[in-house]
Write a structure and sequence with these properties.
176 residues, alpha+beta, Pnp Oxidase, Chain A, six-stranded antiparallel sheet, four-stranded antiparallel sheet, 5 helices, 12 strands, 31% helix
């Protein structure tokens, strides 16, 4: 059943509670940006974390050099969170993304994400070894990219794909 109550995203993006729960649980996450020439760069996150003041994605620096360069030069970021078994998907975008080194408190978030992804990927028929290989990284190579989502979109395949979650909230709020 769809959650009709909306949970405000950090400072701007309004994300339905069920989609926010999907993001918090730890599902597949693809991170993208573009540089000043607007050429896209994309990489799979090795982990994600949500908190009250934003989203943090964890990237392998050697695998994400162009993406990190683009985020560093423009501050722009988009992350697509997708549940493998259902393809239920939400995209969040922001500006002002900050790149930082991994802190000790990040390690538990990264481990929690890996455990969640093992379950997600097993549901579509792959063993935990596959998940470990897909998200393989050297701990010393990781960086964290944090941002405050300013826009959110339903990207689940179907008739509503691409619909702004913010505009949906505004329309719903007009009748109340």
């Amino acid at each position: 059943m769809n959650d009709i109550h909306r949970v405000p995203g950090p400072r701007g993006a309004s994300i339905p509670g069920d989609l926010r729960a999907l993001m918090e649980r730890g599902v597949s996450a693809i991170v993208s940006s573009s540089g000043l020439a607007r050429l896209p760069s994309v990489m799979r996150a090795v982990a994600t974390a949500l908190c009250t003041d934003g989203v943090t994605v964890y990237l392998s620096r050697p695998q994400s050099m162009q993406l990190l360069q683009d985020i560093g030069s423009t501050g722009r970021i988009a992350v697509v969170f997708s549940e493998p078994i259902s393809h239920r998907t939400v995209q969040v975008k922001g500006t002002g993304a900050r790149i930082r080194s991994i802190r000790p408190d990040d390690v538990i978030k990264i481990e929690r994400y890996l455990a969640s992804m093992e379950i997600e990927i097993q549901q579509v028929g792959f063993d935990p070894e596959f998940t470990h290989a897909m998200l393989a990284h050297r701990p010393d190579d990781l960086v964290a990219v944090s941002f405050v989502p300013s826009q959110a979109f339903d990207q689940t395949p179907g008739a509503k794909a691409g619909a702004s979650l913010s505009s949906t909230n505004e329309k719903e709020g007009q009748g109340a």
